[in-house]
Amino acid sequence: MVATRRLRVLLIAAAMIVIASAIPTPVQAQWLKYKTPGIPRLPDGKPNLSAPAPRAADGKPDLSGLWRIDAAGIAETGIAEDAVKATPWAAALTQQRKETLGRDSPSIRCLPPGPVIDMGVGKVVQTRKLLVMLWNGTLYREIFLDGRPLPEDPNPDWMGYSVGHWEGDTLVIVTAGFNDRTWLDDLGHPHTEALRVTERLRRRDFGHMEIIRTAVDPGALAEPWTVPVKLEFYADTEQLEYVCNENERDAAHLVGKASDDKGVPIAPELLAKYAGSYNFNDPVTHEVITFIFKVDADHLVLSGVGPSETMIAVSEKEFSVSGMTLNFEQNEAGAVNEVRIQAVEGNFKAVRK
User: Fold this and answer.
1) Number of domains in the chain
2) Residues 350 and 339: beta-carbon distance below 8 Å
């Protein structure tokens, strides 16, 4: 299955902090550790994320900067994603995509992601009449702020056509004109070309911004789907170039079906020992992200880091989810005290609360 986006973001960030610390001086010229000029800082030199939000020359809030998903809002986003109400055909297609392990997703095919419901904004460049979002590949979005309307009969586009206007200190972006080849989330919820997405962006202080994103699509969604995404200013670094098709080797190995993985039966009383909350300390932001494991019938379910996902038992203490392996470890007294996460990005652990 395609991995939960925010969980992968967290693990990649954790892995990158180790890689960056080992990069020799000449490679640092790639600006990975270049101090962002002109931003408010604390006495110890760290960015002052609680400083007042900057304003542009026209008095509007300036949303410019490099932004990443804020770990503090991950659980809230996941709960909202679980609340999606799909139409019958869309729900059936989502299930089919889960069954085929997400091998037809745009990310696997190295195609633009489209209107992903929990997507960030990358690097924002703001002018009075145009706002641009840049990501570390060749992906970008243009949001026109010059008063133009949406096109009446657009050629269906991967990222859609976007116009924006200000309502006080909130930038409201309306996007339409999507093709129907992209997914609304990592689980495979589809949409039609009638999809319209409204985003409300508000920068509450220098280092924090929130997007309230609402997708409306009568063909695929039984009701509007609203998901909040919290962002944090990412200072003293820059994005590295990423080209999906460069040396791509994953797609050929995505075979089989989700139902092929039957797992092994685990006694309910053993599953109950694993249930609970486990804290992962993000080495980049130093924020604590809580993994929540719950028992649902005869399975463990992972939540707190994205949409709830059922885990497959590989053994009595090892489980598989989103292409990762999770091992529950016991202390000398026999109590389950941590879960170890094995992923492509590296090995990590979360400690039981």
Assistant:
1) 2
2) yes
